Amino acid sequence: MKLTPRRRRRLFRVAGYVVFALVIVGVAAAADWGRLSDAFLRSDVARSMFPEAITVALRNTIAYTLLAFAFGLTMGLVLALMRLSTILPYRWFATAYIELFRGLPSLLVLFMVGYGVPLAFPDREIPGGVYGSVTVGLGLTAAAYMAETLRAGIQAVPKGQLEAARTLGMSHPRAMISIVLPQAFRIVIPPLTNEIILLTKDTSLVYVLGVTSSTIELTKFAGDALNQRVNPTPLVVAGLLYLVITLPLSQVVRGLERRAARER
Amino acid sequence: MSTIEIDGLHKSFGKLEVLRGIDLSVEPGEVVCVIGPSGSGKSTLLRCVNLLEEPTSGTIRVAGAEVTDPDVDIDAVRRGIGMVFQQFNLFGHLTVRENVTIAQRRVLKRGKAEANRIASENLDRVGLSDKADSYPAQLSGGQQQRVAIARALAMDPRLMLFDEPTSALDPELVGEVLAVMRGLAADGMTMLVVTHEMAFAREVASRVVFMDAGVIVEQGPPAQVFGRPREERTREFLHRVLEPTRVSEAELRD
């Protein structure tokens, strides 16, 4: 039988499926399922984490994320407008800020806000306790990323939109607020949602600020439970709870991107 | 008082001099069509009138207000000048009705009911009252351009500028936009129109201005400019535009 190009393609395809199935079966056979489930899926350990896993840890994770996001978005918008300003020093400042905070690890910034600043100014403190420090500590970095995203969004709005608004007698600020920014925000919703997902994961750094039982977030909560029960099941529970936040968000991004593709 | 008075207008983009000394006036109720090859500076001239482009030198007055005065309240001047763009430039995040009301509300500070009433009148005038709740993306190009005209008219302009309003349209949609413009002209609106639609210029214009290489080569009533052009450059342009199938290969060599 001759190997025609069509047969050949089919053969390679079948081989691909077979290799995949063999690897899966091989791994499944080699794994010690009893031990795995004893370590990672102990239902009594998992049960002991509730309801605090949700009422405290998940709640705080979401709160830290939203606070840092709100701070970062506000500051990012100001930075984006500064970057597009006709006033040169504004552009310099915004560019320097963005380059600086994109280049620093989030953890270092968090240390700086949580410990560095209080040491330098012992008589002042960031309002809101840990919540305040997290808002600023994670928000400063997020602002740098969001500023670039927002700038790109503003520049993606066709120039004719601003011209049409100005032609109707709107001032430049009015045209930005009523016409350009609403369209820019629509464009940047998918990348901004990605930013929330990244922030959600960055809240796992918050434990370095020394959280208490009421300000604890998911990762630290799971770590404590792991130490206490000497069993890694809490890590699996925490992982699943993170996915409860991030998977719907990814789904939202995908939906929005599909819609944007259709409208084009 | 002339609606537009342009004196010694020059405009350069870097080293490129696009307008080299334009003198032009438009009287109230006139429909002036500006024709000429691409790159001749027609659109730049139009965009200087409401200061979308800043002239390099020269003065422009619109209804007595000097647009080129550095102390002019340009937003106030622009309120009286409607402009229609080649690319429509409707606000994509707003419905048709909101497109027509937003500047009335934000700029003229009209109440919601009044703005909506005026929007309805103007949408009716361009034949699109049934599309008030649609978004621009749901409309054809011709419909979008008619909304853009209604949006400009809702501001009660004393002058309308048209920058190649039909150039981005599919051929079968050109007629509906020209019909609206013809209606406007008949109602006595002062219009400055940059266009490639020679039939429209011939039929509707009170005056035709032919531009080439940044200057006005000749101007006059359409019958004269189209029928008995004085300048060789005008004849050459009209020949190429009006009889594109008669352009011989020999003409391409010079």
TrEMBL record, chain A:
Subcellular locations according to the entry: Cell membrane
Membrane-related topology note: Multi-pass membrane protein
One Pfam family linked to the record: BPD_transp_1
Residue span(s) of domain ABC transmembrane type-1: 58-253
Membrane-crossing segments per the record: 62-82, 94-117, 235-256
Entry keyword NAD: no
Positions in coiled-coil regions: none
Keyword annotations: Amino-acid transport, Cell membrane, Membrane, Transmembrane, Transmembrane helix, Transport
Gene3D superfamilies: MetI-like
NCBIfam families: HEQRo_perm_3TM
Record-stated family: Belongs to the binding-protein-dependent transport system permease family.
Full protein name: Amino acid ABC transporter permease
Source organism: Paractinoplanes lichenicola
UniProtKB/TrEMBL annotation, chain B:
Superkingdom of the organism of origin: Bacteria
PROSITE patterns cross-referenced by the UniProt entry: ABC_TRANSPORTER_1 (PS00211), ABC_TRANSPORTER_2 (PS50893)
Main location: membrane
Subcellular location: Cell membrane
Membrane topology according to the record: Peripheral membrane protein
Domain ABC transporter: 4-238
SMART domains, sorted: AAA
Tagged with keyword ATP-binding: yes
Family: Belongs to the ABC transporter superfamily.
Protein name: Amino acid ABC transporter ATP-binding protein
